[in-house]
Structure formats: C-alpha cells, structure tokens
Write a structure and sequence with these properties.
- Strand 5 and strand 6 form a beta hairpin.
- This protein is of the alpha+beta class and 310 residues long.
- The strands form 2 sheets. A 7-stranded mixed β-sheet has the order 7-8-9-10-11-13-12, with helices on both faces. Strands 1, 2, 3, 4, 5 and 6 form a 6-stranded antiparallel β-sheet that branches.
- It is globular and about 65 Å long.
Length: 310
C-alpha cells in the first residue's frame, strides 16, 4: 500500500488549491448551466474527467498507448462529489487533482473545483487497474505506482538522453515518423537524411520507456550549431517536453564551443522559440510546404547567418 503525502488542511478539513500539483483551468460554458442558471451538478464530474486527461499529460503518459504498455486499463469503481457552492456561466475555474493512495489494484484521486481560492466542489475518484478483456482486477504495475508517487512528490517523471544515431535513432525515428510523416503529411523520403548520422540527438522517454519528444543538433558553420527535427508526441504538447529537448540541445551547442545556434522554426512555434531566447532573422519561407522563419540565439558575438534546412 502506498499513500501520498497530504499537506496541512484547514480546521474544517476542506482542501485548498495549495494541496494540488495538477491544476487545470477552464471556463464555464452556457450549455453547462441549468434552469437555476448555475452549473448542472453532473458537469462537475466532466470537469474532473477533463482534469484527469491533463493529469496523464503531466505524467507524459499518452493514455491508450501507456495502458497497453502496462498491460491493463483503469476503470472507475466509485465517484463521489460534495457541493459547497455553485459555479455560474463564464466563471473561470481551477479543477485540481491529486493521487492520495495506491493500493494493490486501486488508485484513489482527490478532486476539487475552485473559483479563485473558494472551494466549490470536492470529491473522490476510485479507479481499479484491470485486465481489459475480462475486466478483472490486476496489481497496479510498479512503473505506474512509481510515476504517481514521483509526480506528487514533485520529482521528475521523464528522462532525457543525448547521444548519437546509433543509440537513439530508433527512438527518435518513432517520434519523428508519428509527428512529421503521419501527422503533418511530410513524405518519408524528405524526413530522413545523411545528417542524422553525425548529429547529436536528444530524446525524452516517459516512465514506460516510450520516446515522447526529440530533436537534433548539427553543425551549420564553424562555431554555429543548428537545431532541427524538433518533435513532441501530439498528445503531450504544452507540457514542457519540447522545451526540455531544446534546452538540452542548446546546452550541447554551448558546451562544444559554438558562438551561436540557429534553427528554422515553423511559424506556429515561433513564440515557443522566442521564449527560449531565439530571435528571428531573414524573411519567412516555406519548407516542405510549411511556413518557416529562421531564428538565432547567440552565446557570444553576433554571427550573420542565412537560413538552411533543419
């Protein structure tokens, strides 16, 4: 049996926002209120279920693929709610979740819905890990037990590795195929090139051993690195995995003595790279039919560069 640490509670025992690491913000839609012009009670379960999807994203575990890797699935055994106050149309809510207990085959989550610091609804969700075919209970796998404990303790739930194509090529290729070839429709022959063999690759792995994000670092010119092939699993975007890969490759470029590092950013990701210290230069262009802009981050003296394929 495993029990997650519980922070100090007010005298009335009600949870506060500070008790939760996972918080998901959403706005009440008009369709979710009832004849009393308050949120219909059943929608709070939907809110918690929406937050649960964010919980798995925070664990870097795409739900379906991860359950297949773990050899089971999760089924709701019990869901309880206690109503303290009402939410209304257009309210901005914080929906919070925390894992409080992992038993032999059960996992217990505490949930809460807040408007500001005010608790509106609290509840508990009990899941059972079971065989998908027979729906009979199975022991919670150690990998799942460990990642839940580490997340709640604010410890890392992923591992990032850097290295050559000989050690990371298969993993990096899985992510790039899913993102660039299958999702974005880039022809496979345009995705792979000889530069993979000489690049430094970075890959993030989740706790079931699946690669979920990748990128590579090349030499663009003497003293200049070039980052490219940045890809994150579609279901896990927005969870800082791409930034972890980018930071690792920037650091690899800096450590080998480069004065600057450049990249070709898809225009949809330009703000992401700007937040990491990259600035655009040159004119926008299309690459494999997708709008791009060249961007650069300097470690030392500015270097004038022209755009090049990533």
């Amino acid at each position: 049996m495993t029990t997650a640490p519980v922070s100090a509670r007010p005298a009335d025992g009600r949870p506060t926002l500070r008790d939760f690491r996972l918080r998901h913000r959403l706005r009440v839609r008009w369709a979710e209120v009832d004849m009393q012009k308050i949120v219909f009670n059943a929608h709070y379960l939907m809110y918690l279920d929406t937050a649960m999807a964010e919980y798995w994203r925070a664990l870097a575990l795409p739900y379906e693929a991860s359950m297949q890797a773990l050899g089971g699935d999760l089924y709701v055994k019990k869901a309880t709610l206690e109503y303290h106050a009402s939410a209304r149309s257009d309210d901005l809510l914080e929906v919070a979740l925390r894992c409080t207990r992992v038993g032999s085959s059960s996992i217990v989550f505490e949930g809460a819905v807040f408007r500001g610091d005010r608790l509106l609804v609290s509840g508990e969700l009990v899941y059972v890990f079971a065989d998908p075919a027979s729906q009979t209970a199975r022991p919670v796998p150690e990998a799942l037990r460990a990642v839940l404990a580490d997340f709640e303790a604010r410890r890392p739930v992923t591992a990032l590795r850097t290295g050559g194509w000989d050690t990371l090529g298969e993993a990096a290729g899985r992510v790039r195929t899913a993102v660039f070839v299958e999702e974005q429709g880039i022809a496979a022959e345009e995705e792979w090139d000889a530069e993979d063999a000489t690049a430094v690759h970075a890959v993030v792995f989740n706790r079931v051993g699946a690669p979920v994000a990748t990128g590579r670092l090349l030499r663009h010119a003497p003293g200049v690195g070039r980052i490219g092939r940045m890809a994150v699993d579609r279901l896990l975007r927005g969870g800082a995995l791409g930034r972890a890969v980018l930071d690792a490759l920037v650091e690899q470029s800096r450590l080998r003595g480069d004065a600057a590092v450049v990249l070709n950013a898809q225009r949809s990701a330009e703000r992401f790279y700007a937040r990491a210290g990259f600035a655009p230069f040159g004119e926008p262009f299309d690459e494999v039919g997708i709008p791009h802009i060249a961007m650069r981050r300097d470690f030392g003296l500015p270097i004038q560069m022209s755009s090049a394929s990533a």
